[in-house]
Design brief:
The protein has 410 residues and is α+β, with helices and mostly antiparallel strands. Helix content is 26%, strand content 29%. Bound molecules: flavin-adenine dinucleotide (FAD). The site of flavin-adenine dinucleotide (FAD) has 40 residues, from helix 1, strand 2, helix 6, strand 12 and strand 16.
């Protein structure tokens, strides 16, 4: 059995764990990340990758807590994406530099005022009709453009993981990870066993950080902590693939986003639209076929004139894992709990990952100055986690919409 002194052991390699790992190591502390399955395989790869500026949370014309937390974030991300701040995210695919907003006249007409009134860094600008994206050409109301970037989450996870391979392990949390506790929330040892390599490692960390999303509940139970600190908010979202234009936009209906559409190309070059927003919340109570039928009607309503012939549809269920709130509403910000030598975090939004990493570093004890070199040597033969695939690469059941005669003729 190898023995290691490590300042920090992080459990979970989604955006939070990976950003935190980078920040902790930059702060001079040694760190090890244990991923139970595939990197980003919880919410991160499923996310729409929108770097929210807070506007979405201010549609009632009030600067909400959520908007206040998010408003500084897009600028920080932009600097990382340009390689001007760390982590260097120049390898990340930016799918769009801006998002379109459209909706009912009453809701959309106020949007132009919001950004400035609420002190948001990123404010919506009116798009002249001649410059409407093709899919919005038949929309009767105003269209706005807001400089919220959209990232490919898979490329983000890949970029964040690239420089951390030497300190990441892929282990089955149920059978290959054991905790030795001094008391509830006070971890004395983490014993890691790799069935594949036959090796065992006994780690004595100063601190343990839980960034496992939904997996935090089980980890907390094993550490003698209350799993009820977490809440799950389910989503059931829709994917459409086929001959569609690239488009990124929110349709606003009063204070809500009726649909949020982001686009990506699959490995065979087909355009895929991911449809979130209110429809993915309402879809939780629907089965897949009913949600697909509802989504087809919804797209026809919010994008008049759209031709969906020949497209294929599927749906995906996923839970958002967050710090628990009274009544189960979305928390305004990330949640960080510090109990014993265990820190548990839920970012609430991908865009808040940098804030979470900073807060974790501030809460950690100063590093004990263990050299990183023996850590990297001891881990050389251990299994490494791969990056998860987006849902559209893995889902097998797609429901076709018959091709229109017009398209066949073409
Ligand atoms: C459909 C959807 C769309 C979204 N869109 C956006 C958006 O556009 N913009 C935005 O800002 N936010 C968005 N979000 C929210 C955002 O995705 C999440 O807040 C964020 O990705 C959470 O990251 P995380 O790293 O904390 O958790 P996760 O991404 O869930 O990662 C947890 C990781 O821990 C691993 N794990 C689980 N259990 C264990 C264990 N016991 N031991 C070790 N590892 C374990 C998992 O395999 C996974 O890799 C969206 C969320 C969803 C569901």
């Amino acid at each position: 059995m190898d023995r290691l002194h490590v300042d920090t052991v992080i459990f979970g390699g989604g955006v939070t764990g990976l950003w935190t790992l980078d920040a902790v190591r930059r702060s001079g502390r040694s760190a090890l990340l244990v991923e139970g399955h595939r990197l980003g395989g919880g919410q991160t790869i499923a996310s729409q990758g929108i770097l929210h500026s807070g506007l979405k949370y201010s549609l009632a014309g009030v600067l909400t807590g959520a908007a206040r937390e998010a408003r500084e974030m897009p600028l920080l991300w932009r600097r990382c994406l340009l390689g001007e701040a760390v982590p260097d995210l120049r390898g990340v695919t930016v799918s769009a530099e801006a998002f379109h907003l459209w909706g009912t006249q009453s809701a959309a007409s106020k949007l132009g005022l919001f950004g400035a009134q609420l002190g948001l860094q990123v404010t919506p600008r009116t798009v002249p009709r001649a410059e409407y994206p093709t899919v919005l050409q038949s929309c009767p109301g105003a269209v706005y453009r807001v400089d919220e970037q959209v990232l490919s989450p898979q490329s983000l996870v890949t970029a964040l993981a690239a420089s951390q391979q030497d300190v990441m392990l892929q282990l089955d949390p149920a059978t290959e990870v054991e905790f030795v506790l001094q008391s509830a929330g006070q971890v004395r040892q983490v014993r890691l066993h790799s069935a594949r390599s036959g090796r065992t490692l006994q780690v004595e960390p100063q601190a343990v950080v839980l960034t496992a999303g939904k997996g935090n509940a089980l980890l907390r139970t094993r550490l003698g902590l209350d799993a009820r600190a977490m809440q799950l908010r389910p989503l059931h979202y829709v994917l459409v693939r086929g001959d569609l234009p690239e488009f990124h936009g929110h349709c606003i209906d009063f204070h809500k986003t009726r649909v949020s559409i982001t686009s990506a190309r699959d490995s065979r070059g087909r355009m895929v639209w991911q449809i979130g927003g209110q429809i993915s919340e309402d879809g939780v109570k629907l089965d897949a076929d009913s949600l697909i039928a509802r989504a087809q009607l919804e797209l026809a309503a919010v994008l008049p004139g759209i031709d969906l012939a020949g497209t294929e549809w599927t749906t995906c269920r996923i839970d958002r894992a967050e710090g628990a709130t009274v009544g189960g509403a979305r928390p305004d910000s990330y949640r960080l709990l510090h109990e014993g030598n265990v820190l548990t975090v839920w970012p609430t939004k991908l865009v808040l990952a940098p804030q979470v990493a900073q807060a974790v570093c501030a809460a950690l004890p100063a590093g004990a100055g263990h050299s990183l070199q023996p850590l990297e040597q001891a881990l050389a033969a251990w299994p490494r986690p791969s990056v998860a695939l987006p849902a559209w690469e893995e889902l097998r059941r797609w429901v076709p919409v018959p091709a229109s005669p017009r398209r066949h003729a073409a």
